[in-house]
Automatic annotation (TrEMBL):
<dbReference type="InterPro" id="IPR011551">
    <property type="entry name" value="NTP_PyrPHydrolase_MazG"/>
</dbReference>
<dbReference type="GO" id="GO:0046076">
    <property type="term" value="P:dTTP catabolic process"/>
</dbReference>
<dbReference type="GO" id="GO:0046052">
    <property type="term" value="P:UTP catabolic process"/>
</dbReference>
<dbReference type="GO" id="GO:0046061">
    <property type="term" value="P:dATP catabolic process"/>
</dbReference>
<dbReference type="GO" id="GO:0047429">
    <property type="term" value="F:nucleoside triphosphate diphosphatase activity"/>
</dbReference>
<dbReference type="GO" id="GO:0046081">
    <property type="term" value="P:dUTP catabolic process"/>
</dbReference>
<feature type="domain" description="NTP pyrophosphohydrolase MazG-like">
    <location>
        <begin position="35"/>
        <end position="110"/>
    </location>
</feature>
<dbReference type="InterPro" id="IPR004518">
    <property type="entry name" value="MazG-like_dom"/>
</dbReference>
<dbReference type="GO" id="GO:0006950">
    <property type="term" value="P:response to stress"/>
</dbReference>
<dbReference type="InterPro" id="IPR048015">
    <property type="entry name" value="NTP-PPase_MazG-like_N"/>
</dbReference>
<dbReference type="GO" id="GO:0006203">
    <property type="term" value="P:dGTP catabolic process"/>
</dbReference>
<dbReference type="GO" id="GO:0046047">
    <property type="term" value="P:TTP catabolic process"/>
</dbReference>
<protein>
    <submittedName>
        <fullName>MazG family protein</fullName>
    </submittedName>
</protein>
<dbReference type="Pfam" id="PF03819">
    <property type="entry name" value="MazG"/>
</dbReference>
Length: 228
């Protein structure tokens, strides 16, 4: 069993935290001081998309900047929470909770579980997550409702694995030769639907909801079988 690594000092991170605290303190920036968790949501979404753009198409400098912007959003929310009388927590609480979660989800590193390959880790990941969240009764619990249809489809398909509700892949379809071809096929489907007045996003949402219903039905059947 491995021990937790020894922390190293992070003076630049501490300085950024101090700058944010100063901006939100009395005499600092009026705009920063007035922000709430809710008012910052739009910026978190924007900064996340800008980071994705930097990862996929930007330079080292672009990625450095956008990672900083996402980090700043995390620190901003933590500082807002630190000033809350009802639901108070600090960035230290965030770090402590995340450390505990990551240690718990890596029993092959910090415990006695054996998982020597990335495939072994992926195969056990959901099991380790469920052990940390025993209140969840379905593999679908925790999938954000606000995900765009395609992202939700990816997530739900991943959760469907092993629940007897997977989508069968048409063996007559020619194999995809990489993501570029997948992208063109998806775009072609969207174009075909658009030509017929169909909404691709709405159609995929409906298909994903149907898959979710099948997953929950399979889970219910499995639960009754165990009880019987």
């Amino acid at each position: 069993m491995s021990e937790l690594p020894t922390p190293r000092p992070h003076p630049n991170l501490d300085q950024l935290i101090a700058v944010l605290e100063y901006l939100r303190a009395p005499g600092g920036c009026a705009w920063d001081a007035e922000q709430t968790h809710e008012s910052l949501v739009q910026y978190l979404v924007e900064e996340s998309h800008e980071l994705i753009e930097a990862i996929e198409h930007g330079s080292r400098e672009d990625m450095l900047e956008e990672l900083g912007d996402v980090l700043y959003q995390v620190l901003f929310h933590a500082d807002i929470a630190a000033a809350s009388a009802e639901h108070r927590f600090t960035i230290e609480d965030v770090a402590a909770a995340t450390t505990a979660k990551m240690v718990g989800r890596h029993p092959h590193v910090f415990g006695d579980v054996v998982a020597d390959t990335a495939e072994d880790v992926a195969a056990n990941w959901e099991t380790w997550k469920r052990q940390q969240k025993p209140a969840r009764t379905s593999v679908l619990d925790g999938v954000p409702a606000g995900l765009p249809a395609l992202a939700r489809a990816e997530k739900v398909l991943g959760r469907a694995h092993g629940v007897s509700a997977e989508i069968a892949v048409d063996e007559n379809e020619p194999a995809l030769e990489g993501e570029a071809e997948l992208g063109h096929r998806l775009l072609s489907l969207v174009a075909a639907g658009r030509a017929q007045g169909l909404d691709a996003e709405r159609a995929l949402r409906a298909a994903v909801r149907d898959l979710e219903s099948r997953i929950r039905a399979a889970e219910s059947t499995a639960a009754r079988t165990v009880v019987d």
